[in-house]
Amino acid sequence: FAKKVTSSFCFCSVCSSLPWQCFRALCCKGPPPPRPEYDLVCIGLTGSGKTSLLSQLCSESPDNIVSTTGFSIKAVPFQNAILNVKELGGADNIRKYWSRYYQGSQGVIFVLDSASSEDDLETARNELHSALQHPQLCTLPFLILANHQDKPAARSVQEV
Q1: Which residues form a coiled coil (predicted)?
Q2: Binding annotation for Mg(2+)
Q3: 100, 112, 142, 146: which has the highest count of C-beta atoms within 10 A?
């Protein structure tokens, strides 16, 4: 009888401790540590591909992309971080307001259309130089993307 009680006790002991271990493993670890977030600003002339770039990074459908008329914000998730990207419209009447959105940025993405006209490319150069010299951006990392490399009229990165 003692053996039965002992074996029964052992079985119940294992049975009662196993759910506790499972509970602790599933519930007591707490939430995963938060991924660091970085605030970026994405600028470039209208039609350079800013919206398409962000849609691609967010795995969104490229269908029905329309030009950004003001600004939009997208959270771009990566395995180790989240990029909160403020995309600013690139129309002439909006570019003069870009600097109002620079505060708090930790990096800049400048997108240019490598297949654009000489005039538009010169305008893009001027806007890039202006951004590079702006007090809130001049110390930040810049990523400059020469977009539309797949178009026949595209200039090489060296030409841009």
Answers
A1: none
A2: 51, 68
A3: 112
